[in-house]
Automatic annotation (TrEMBL):
Name under which the protein is recorded: ABC transporter ATP-binding protein
PANTHER family found in the cross-reference section: ABC TRANSPORTER ATP-BINDING PROTEIN ALBC-RELATED (PTHR42939)
InterPro entries membership: AAA+_ATPase (IPR003593), ABC_transporter-like_ATP-bd (IPR003439), ABC_transporter-like_CS (IPR017871), ABC_Transporter_VariousFunc (IPR051782), P-loop_NTPase (IPR027417)
Pfam families per UniProt: ABC_tran
Single GO MF annotation: ATP binding
Keywords: ATP-binding, Nucleotide-binding, Transport
Domain ABC transporter: from-to ranges: 12-236
Highest taxon in the source lineage: Bacteria
Source organism: Streptomyces griseorubiginosus
Length: 307
């Protein structure tokens, strides 16, 4: 393995985390979860769910109004040199050239800067290092911002809809670069996006927010295995009587189709199949009252009892 620092096993841990903006309702409320180190995590949720708020708090740019958040074994912002945050608006200095922007990245991160990696990302987009940031398109700026973020060689990357304004080819290429880089260096990535199908290929972990709370958290395989799409001639009550939790159901030609969280095997007579990540996410978004599920790897350690 490449890392020489003693990386913590948990990259991010939230306990009762909440955030209010002024007198408004809570953007985040009582969120408790942990994000294991080295995972590529999808951060998903409807508009206004609190994704950007969570990422900005983890980057140390916003203070929680309640609860605690630990980032790489420290307070948010304490290990700024080991964390890269790519905000939704990709802030860069418009008057600088790309080359000057990357030089600034090198100066700000003297111990860790990977000039070759940053230069490669810019080159792959066919960008002239002498171009000024203000002359770039939105997608080209995103490429430079990603070059800055990856060049920093962070242990934790917090990416807020990083691919939103990239064309499909650039998205595919940059996602591939990001994933290969994260795998090579064991980087933890927490990445928000609305394009769930794309996340399914790239991510191995999921954090689903809704109404300011954590709705689902865990390894994607574990979460998919915990759910089943059942089809048959029965009612939702038949399933709940057996202890299964019906997240969402609809009646169609062949009978009932439901996404359930299983408690033991499903009775014979129901056809069963594992949901796709998109089916799982959509069902939970459509059913905001469904109970939350955190798998053991995402469940925070119990609070120590103080005497
Ligand atoms: N600076 C701010 N001042 C006041 N309210 C804010 C501010 N930033 C966010 N909010 C509110 O906090 C809530 C969560 O917003 P946030 O941007 O974190 O959601 P999001 O999940 O990232 O949404 P989207 O998918 O639309 O980007 C929303 O209700 C939003 O209106």
């Amino acid at each position: 393995m490449s890392s020489t620092s003693t990386a913590p096993a948990v990259a991010l841990e939230a306990s009762g985390l909440g955030k209010r903006y002024g007198r408004q309702g809570a953007a985040l409320e009582d969120c408790s979860f942990r994000l294991p180190a080295g995972r590529i995590s999808a951060l998903v949720g409807p508009n206004g769910a609190g994704k950007s708020t969570l990422l900005a708090m983890a980057a140390g740019l916003l203070r929680p109004t309640s609860g605690t958040l630990t980032v790489l074994d420290g307070a948010p912002g304490e290990h700024r040199d080991r964390v890269a945050h790519l905000a939704q608006n990709k802030p860069l200095y418009p008057q600088l050239t790309i080359a000057e922007t990357l030089s600034m990245g090198a100066e700000l991160n003297p111990a860790r800067w990977d000039a070759a990696c940053a230069a490669r990302i810019v080159e792959q987009g066919g960008l002239d290092p002498k171009s000024r940031i203000r002359s770039l398109s939105g997608g080209q700026r995103t490429r430079v911002a990603l070059a800055l973020a990856l060049g920093k060689r962070p242990e934790l990357m917090l990416l807020d809809e990083p691919m939103a304004d990239l064309d499909p080819l650039a998205r595919h290429e940059l996602m591939g670069t990001l994933m290969a880089d994260a795998a090579e260096h064991g980087t933890t990535v927490l990445m928000s996006s609305h394009i769930v199908a794309e996340l399914a290929d790239a991510c191995d972990h999921l954090l689903l927010l809704g109404g300011g709370r954590v709705r689902l958290g865990g390894g994607i395989d574990d979460l998919l295995t915990a759910h089943t799409v059942v089809t048959g001639r029965g009612t939702p009550e038949d399933l709940t009587r057996r202890g299964h939790t019906v997240i969402e159901s609809r009646t169609a030609g062949r009978g009932l189709t439901a996404l359930v969280r299983r408690d033991g095997p499903v009775d014979e007579g129901w056809a069963t199949e594992e949901p796709s990540l998109e089916e799982l996410v959509l069902a939970h978004l459509r059913a905001p009252a469904a109970p939350a599920l955190l798998t053991p790897s995402t469940t925070p350690a119990p609070q120590a009892v103080t005497a």
